[in-house]
Design brief:
The protein has 5 helices and 3 strands. The chain is an alpha+beta fold and 100 residues long. It has a single domain, classed as Arc Repressor Mutant, subunit A, CATH 1.10.10.10. It has a 3-stranded antiparallel β-sheet. Helix 3 crosses helix 4.
Length: 100
Amino acid sequence: MAQELDLLPDEVLDDAAECLKVMAHPVRLKMAHILMQGQFAVHEIARLCETSANQTCEHLRLLKGHGLLSSERRGRTVYYKILSPRLPRLVECIKASCGA
């Protein structure tokens, strides 16, 4: 007798794989962890991640382009915050699973 399995739909797996591909970089994971603690300007994120402003902007642009972050311009400064609720859950899962 065949056992009935509870499998996730392919669409869910495809979406999860895409999210994991985007987040598969230590700097982007660090940015997500920082942004879980509030809204930050690009220069603040760059300083905390020890990356150049250009590198920081590229990472943030990628995360925003995949719907994980949102941004708000105030004068000449751009502030980022988490948009997707799955991003904090992913970071928490990593913390719990990887001993952080």
